[in-house]
């Protein structure tokens, strides 16, 4: 069953067992969220969108139709209590006669007595003059829950399928792409059964014609449904297929431990860790198929996301992140590269710089014997012409980056020697912790993307020095911007760099809509970006850069 399906035509719904009713209701809410997400900031322009459809996210579970543009809104209260839709929301749900806290959805199947889960508690804090604390202890705790041992075991399991080539066996069992995707989906389902988030696992089939053969391939998707009033999506992507030297060889061993069992294992670990709580944004973990033949799985999903106008604020593609040694045994365990396509001031490059900022803020939770893991943005689309799955999302109009080890032994890529024993579990775990920090900040930050700020050089501050922010001898810039219309925004982070630099030189806090930056090299081309923040320091995406 396709992941994106038109649900406007009514279909009969048979009674479902209690467990499947819960999953079905989660699916209906997630599907409705897809339908209304087209209006989120960052989506393609309306004239570029196809007519909105919604997604059926439980295979084999037909759902009642969702009116275009309508989203049932429920009040999440104590266990066993589900209030009716609020005024102005879609009709069709009510509290069952006689009370008991059982809501009747539009298809007539009652929700279980325990009702919908209550949101994860969110503390609030008074913002100090210097701004919120640099890290959220709740996010640090989740980063600490990442297990190098689980990652090692998942990579070994993926390698044990022998090959995950698109033309290998599509059936279940012990070998081939079919066995791997079945294990992946079952693993996501098992994780979902024990999680606080509503995790829905599904297969997303698509046709592939390659090397003279026509086959059905399947992406495997796990969705952690967001509970915020503003619908947006944070994607984490990794391709689970593998290949050997010959691109059309579906029979030979291709264990693909580094490329890309490492990224696929990261998705499973993120489901375990991120599933421990609920998030304002929807977090989608996408394991793609047929990447090695030309990003076919990613292109299929990204095209549908664009047609729906999904409000995808970021795509993190984890591809070769297990810390395997490079040529000659060289390692750089304290660094991970971030590739991005597009203009130097464009949304994907800003996302790479954002990841570097978050890594710096959460450096204490990214520590290792080699030092804290740092993000090194690389101002090119990818490592070579082959291209990773993030490029399919960039082409569809979404901000996307590829995280990749700082070094790689290219001779072992697409070879039978790409085995699990070559990986560095400590580095692998650090990259997953980085993902947690970036995803959590994006999924908790208030919605809103600032327009490009305005820069003015204050009179009498021009000098000859070339110091960083706060240093004497440079210019003083006064930066102003338009406030974002979101009551959850309690201030802004202001970042600056010189034109052509890969990372921001400094980031500072402002409680209002202006800031002063000192020590800018006189006459230099400067780029400044602004990101909204809540009272706990959850930083949103950087908006368009202003400059001079």
Outline the structure in words.
The protein has 548 residues and is of the alpha+beta class. It has three domains: 1-116, no CATH class; 137-207 and 214-444, Zn peptidases (Aminopeptidase, 3-Layer(aba) Sandwich); 454-547, Immunoglobulins (Immunoglobulin-like, Sandwich), CATH 2.60.40. Helices cover 23% and strands 19% of the residues. It is built from nine helices and 17 strands. It has helices spanning 18-36, 137-144, 148-159, 177-193, 257-274, 296-308, 347-361, 390-395, 425-444, and strands at residues 94-95, 103-104, 199-210, 213-224, 233-239, 282-288, 312-318, 335-339, 374-378, 400-405, 454-457, 475-480, 491-498, 506-510, 514-520, 526-533, 546-547. The protein has an eight-stranded mixed beta sheet with strand order 3-4-6-5-7-10-8-9, sandwiched between helices. A four-stranded antiparallel beta sheet has the order 14-13-16-17, with no helix packed on it. A three-stranded antiparallel beta sheet has the order 11-12-15, with no helix packed on it. Helix 3 (148-159) packs across helix 9 and helix 5 (257-274) crosses helix 9. 50% of the residues are buried. Residues 4-113 and 463-471 have low confidence and may be disordered.
């Amino acid at each position: 069953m396709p992941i994106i399906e038109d649900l406007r035509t009514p279909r009969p719904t048979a009674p479902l067992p209690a467990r499947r009713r819960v999953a079905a209701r989660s699916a209906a809410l997630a599907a409705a969220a897809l339908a209304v997400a087209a209006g989120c900031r960052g989506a393609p322009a309306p004239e570029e969108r196809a007519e909105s459809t919604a997604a059926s996210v439980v295979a084999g579970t037909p759902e009642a139709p969702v009116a275009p543009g309508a989203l049932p809104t429920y009040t999440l209260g104590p266990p066993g209590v589900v209030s009716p839709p609020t005024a102005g929301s879609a009709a069709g749900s009510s509290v069952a006669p006689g009370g008991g806290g059982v809501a009747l959805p539009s298809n007539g199947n009652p929700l279980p007595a325990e009702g919908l889960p209550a949101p994860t508690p969110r503390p609030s804090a008074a913002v100090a003059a210097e701004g919120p604390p640099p890290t959220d202890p709740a996010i640090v705790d989740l980063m600490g829950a990442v297990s190098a041992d689980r990652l090692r075991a998942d990579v070994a399991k993926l390698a044990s399928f022998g090959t995950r080539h698109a033309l290998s066996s599509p059936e279940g069992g012990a070998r081939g792409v079919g066995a791997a995707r079945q294990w992946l989906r079952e693993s996501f389902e098992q994780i979902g059964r024990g999680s606080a988030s509503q995790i829905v696992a599904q297969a997303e089939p698509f046709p592939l014609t390659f090397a003279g053969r026509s086959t059905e391939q399947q992406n495997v998707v796990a969705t952690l449904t967001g509970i915020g009033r503003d619908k947006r999506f944070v994607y984490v992507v990794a391709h689970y297929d593998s290949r050997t030297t010959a691109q059309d060889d579906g029979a030979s061993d291709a264990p693909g431990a580094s490329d890309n069992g490492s990224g696929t294992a990261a998705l499973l670990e993120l489901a375990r860790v991120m599933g421990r709580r609920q998030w304002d944004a929807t977090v989608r973990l996408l394991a793609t198929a047929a990447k090695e033949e030309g990003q076919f799985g990613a292109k299929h999903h990204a095209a549908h996301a664009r047609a729906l106008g999904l409000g995808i604020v970021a795509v993190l593609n984890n591809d070769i992140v297990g810390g395997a040694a490079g040529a000659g045994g060289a390692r750089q365990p304290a660094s991970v590269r971030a590739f991005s396509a597009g203009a130097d001031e464009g949304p994907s490059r800003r996302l790479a710089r954002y990841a570097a900022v978050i890594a710096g803020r959460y450096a204490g939770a990214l520590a290792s014997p080699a030092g804290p893991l740092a993000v090194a943005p690389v101002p090119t689309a990818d490592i070579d012409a082959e291209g990773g799955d993030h490029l399919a999302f960039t082409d569809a109009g979404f901000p996307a980056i590829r995280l990749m080890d700082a070094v790689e032994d290219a001779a072992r890529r697409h070879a039978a020697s790409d085995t699990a024993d070559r990986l560095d579990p400590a580095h692998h775990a650090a990259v997953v912790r980085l993902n947690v920090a970036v995803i959590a900040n994006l999924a908790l930050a208030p919605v809103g993307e600032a327009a490009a700020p305005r820069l003015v050089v204050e009179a009498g501050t021009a000098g000859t020095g070339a110091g960083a922010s706060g240093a004497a001898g440079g210019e003083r810039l006064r930066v102003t911007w338009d406030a974002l219309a979101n009551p959850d925004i309690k201030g802004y982070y202001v970042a600056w760099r010189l034109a052509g630099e890969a990372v921001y030189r400094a980031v500072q806090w402002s409680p209002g809509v202006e800031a002063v930056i000192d020590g800018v090299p006189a006459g230099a081309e400067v780029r400044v970006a602004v990101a909204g923040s809540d009272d706990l320091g959850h930083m949103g995406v950087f908006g368009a850069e202003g400059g001079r």
